[in-house]
Amino acid sequence: MRIIAGKFKGRDLTSPADFRVRPTAEHVRGALLDLLAEDLPGASVLDLFAGTGALGLEAISRGARRCDFVETRPTSLAALKSNIIKLRLKERTRVFKKDALPFAGQLNADAYDLVFVDPPYESRMLDRVIDSWMARHFTPVLAVEHARTHILPRGALTRTFEDTSVTIYRAPRATAATAPATAAPTE
Prior knowledge:
The chain has 187 residues and is α/β, with parallel strands linked by helices. The protein has helices at 26-35, 54-61, 74-86, 100-105, 125-135, and strands at 44-48, 66-70, 93-96, 114-117, 141-147, 157-161, 164-170. Strands 3-2-1-4-5-7-6 form a 7-stranded mixed β-sheet, with helices on both faces. It has one domain (26-170): Vaccinia Virus protein VP39 (Rossmann fold, 3-Layer(aba) Sandwich).
């Protein structure tokens, strides 16, 4: 596994020796990050269910300003921390050894510019994160990786690669008609 594009293109990443970990295939990661190219420059990113951190590290390689990672499995945490050290990104990253569901549930609106979600396939954890996001848009852009057969709410861009799909949700933007009115300054 390696970084596909950007500043760290071609750099190898460490993967944990854990059969339960399913790193995002390079062609899927590359296509997803290509779809998000306009969202990456200067972005504050969150990688939930981070595993090796490949999605968040690829985002930094392609111009994101920083990335926070949330992971609980010890083998994945060791690989993630190793990858951060290899790429010398300690100053631009934070690692949280926490459960991703409560972490996402406590986020304020617009806490991050972009959030990646890649839980175990066919897990209802994905549905819970999406429900949390729909209730309180903690990011304008929510990018999820899931099994092709996992049925998700409509209204998002989805691309499918073999058994894997990626879906990108975008929060509705406030317009002049929907934005809250502000009082004119008084003199």
